[in-house]
Design a protein that fits this description.
2 domains; alpha/beta; UDP-N-acetylmuramoyl-L-alanine:D-glutamate ligase; single chain; four-stranded mixed beta sheet
Length: 261
């Protein structure tokens, strides 16, 4: 007797963020020009999903760039670029300058209008999950995120990223705790950030202090808070379905370097 295999349902996931045109300057003088920002998130999810996810990219893109992306990224499993918000605006250009100690400076040029609830609302009923990646920190305003939170039935994951950066008139980014930071974070089910971003938001430097701080954030709304720490690993605070608070400190796993940039 042959078993009847029922295909698993495809999950619809929205990925919201900005597409940047990056110029990367390395300490050895090399210069790279590439597209970045939310494209990395969307493509990574597509490959991780292996066809089990349908990825809706919710971002603005210049008309010609949108057409080019649909051709260049047509091989990414499940990635949907049909409904990019096309604009004559050239978009964001980000100059990233690395020093020999691993530090960096960023200069962001360009202004792109934040996405609005009117633009996003047609997509929300179809989504089982939404990822909001603050690539620039200017993707949408707090009121729009609050409205989105009420329109998505599944989990909302927030990558804090540049929400912790201000911008000078010349485009140079600088560390800055956003006003209403607690309100922003409370709207997500899962909040992810790196250690530097956590410090800007007020977290202490030691591991136990990070765990205490992440646990406090969980009390204010998110179900889980993840702080990545590079080679030191990551800490996680979260609440299980039964209400029990969990705290995890995970050391980084050693990996073999296949390629250095």
């Amino acid at each position: 007797m042959t078993a009847c295999l029922v295909p698993s349902a495809v999950l619809d996931v929205g990925v919201l963020g900005s597409i940047n045109q990056d110029t990367i300057e390395h300490p050895d003088g090399r210069i790279q020009h590439e597209l970045g920002g939310v494209l990395f998130t969307a493509c990574a999810l597509g490959y991780l999903g292996g066809g089990a996810l349908r990825i809706w990219l919710l971002a603005r893109a210049h008309d010609e760039l949108a057409c080019s992306l649909r051709q260049r990224l047509s091989h990414v499993p499940g990635l949907r670029l049909d409904d990019l918000f096309e604009t004559p605006n050239p978009g964001y250009r980000c100059r990233i300058m690395y020093d020999e100690w691993g530090g960096k400076r960023e200069v962001l040029q360009g202004d792109v209008a934040p996405l609005t609830m009117a633009e996003l609302s047609p997509f929300l009923p179809r989504l089982q999950a939404l990822v909001v990646n603050f690539v620039t920190g200017f993707e949408l305003d707090l009121e729009t995120l609050a409205a989105i939170r009420g329109g998505v039935e599944g989990p909302l994951l927030m990558d804090v990223h540049s929400l912790t950066l201000g911008r000078r008139q010349d485009g140079l980014r600088f560390p800055r705790r956003p006003s209403d930071a607690d309100r922003w974070l409370a709207l997500a089910d899962v909040v992810q950030m790196n250690e530097l971003e956590a410090h800007i938001l007020g977290a202490p430097a030691d591991e136990e202090g990070l765990l205490d701080w992440a646990s406090l954030l969980v009390e204010r709304g998110p179900r889980a808070v993840i702080v990545t720490r590079g080679a030191a690993g990551a800490v996680v605070a979260g609440r299980e379905a039964n209400g029990r608070l969990i705290r995890i400190s995970q050391k980084a796993h050693p990996v073999d370097v296949a390629h250095e940039i």
